[in-house]
Amino acid sequence: MANPYQRTSFLTSVPNAKLAPADTGAEVAFAGRSNAGKSSALNAITQQRSLARISKSPGRTRALNFFRVTDNRRLVDLPGYGYARVSQQLKQEWQKHLTKYLETRHSLQGLILLMDIRHPLTDYDQQMLQWCQHAGLPTHILLTKCDKLKRGPGNAALMKVRKSLRGMHHDASIQLFSALNLTGVEEAREILDKWLEL
After folding, report:
1. pLDDT reported for residue 55
2. Beta-carbon neighbour count of residue 32 at 10 Å?
3. What is the DSSP string of 143-197?
4. Which one of 35, 99, 180, 198 is most buried, counting C-beta atoms within 10 A?
């Protein structure tokens, strides 16, 4: 079956939600710590090598990056949080714009939250999960870089995070993911298909 995400193309990059594309149709946002592998995940899902730019310096995504999947269907790469070496003032500014986007964007159908399987549920991750629970925003977690662990420890980490979710966002779904060996890519696409109605 053809991958509809292979045709995804860069649409625009904006510093805040006010300048975002028209709030129509459907879009899914990708969020996570700056070193959780958002760009790699986007590239793996779309089967494109450089749709989202991968940097060796985490925290390079400093804007809302919109990608067009089809007419009125978009993926959004949100600024990474909690790692970038920038001033506290700039971090607070990003947080303000991020919150504004998440609270006001009508076309937002769900959030893909990425966590490094070796360092899941950071304070920022927990805040994001609690916010999504409060807002009633569907959330799907990718435990990234699962290729770094053997199957047993990987599944144990999955179960541990799943158990912890009950107190943060009991409706959130979760899976193992690796952009390197493509573990979980099809499963992630199925979530996107459902939210974007593709």
Report:
1. 52
2. 27
3. EE-GGGS-HHHHHHHHHHHHHHHTTT-TT-EEEE--TTT-TTHHHHHHHHHHHHT
4. 35
Tokens of 104: 């006001």
Residue identified by tokens 């804007």 is: 63
The tokens describing 39, both together, are: 């760009």
Name the token pair of 138. 């569907």
- CB burial of residue 150 (10 Å; 0-12, 13-18, 19+): exposed
Residues in the chain: 198
Residues 6+ apart with CB under 8 A from 31: 38, 78, 81, 98, 111, 112, 113, 114, 128
> pLDDT tens digits for 111-144?
999 999 999 999 889 988 988 998 899 999 999 9
Q: What does the CA dihedral 8, 79, 134, 141 come to, rounded to 10 degrees?
A: 60
